[in-house]
Design a protein that fits this description.
- The structure is a single chain.
- By secondary structure, this protein is mostly helical.
- It has a domain at about 15-25 and about 35-120.
- It has helices at about 10-25, 40-50, 55-75, 85-95, 100-115, 120-125, 140-145; strands at about 5, 150-155.
- The protein has a two-stranded parallel sheet with strand order 1-2.
- The longest helix has 22 residues, at about 55-75.
- The radius of gyration is 16 Å and the shape is globular.
- The two termini are about 15 Å apart.
Length: about 160
């Protein structure tokens, strides 16, 4: 792979937190690398460029909130906590009493799933043969290259 996609939004602490969150939302198993991969992060980062700046800022802030709230659930930032502490925290955010956390979690989960399931290397793990229309042109060929694994994602 000679081409690279450099993340613009998921960088530094946000990238580390996103990868940990995504692995908790879609855990790795014997058939799948899980959600916490650079390829998933690349698709999400690419999509973040295309949403309203205010919404993007809120989602990026929420990732940091999840990271630092980990201290309340496991004594460390989310990315450094145990798997059980991570699950406990995300479960609380998903179904807890604070609407902003539920909404933030829903958005983060939606982007994680979108980033994961659009990747062609994941399709075989769910017995999906791909879309019926394969001759579509993409406005930005980078997203197709990321999803096909032809472009390496770097933080």
């Amino acid at each position: 792979m000679a081409e690279f996609y450099r993340c613009k939004y998921l960088t530094g602490r946000r990238l580390v937190a996103f990868l940990a969150i995504a692995d908790c939302i879609i855990p790795p198993d014997e058939d799948s690398p899980g959600g916490g991969t650079m390829a998933t992060a690349g698709v999400v980062d690419w999509a973040l460029e295309r949403i309203a700046a205010s919404l993007r800022s809120q989602l990026l802030l929420f990732i940091l909130v999840v990271e630092f709230m980990g201290i309340l659930f496991g004594g460390k930032p989310f990315s450094k906590n145990s798997e059980s502490a991570r699950k406990r925290q995300l479960s609380w955010m998903e179904s807890g009493p604070i609407g902003l956390f539920r909404m933030g979690f829903f958005g983060l989960k939606s982007y994680t799933c979108m980033g994961y399931y659009t990747r062609e290397d994941i399709w075989k793990t769910i017995d999906y043969e791909g879309p019926m229309l394969t001759d579509l042109e993409f406005v930005d060929p980078a997203i197709r290259a990321i999803c096909q694994g032809r472009m390496e994602v770097v933080g």
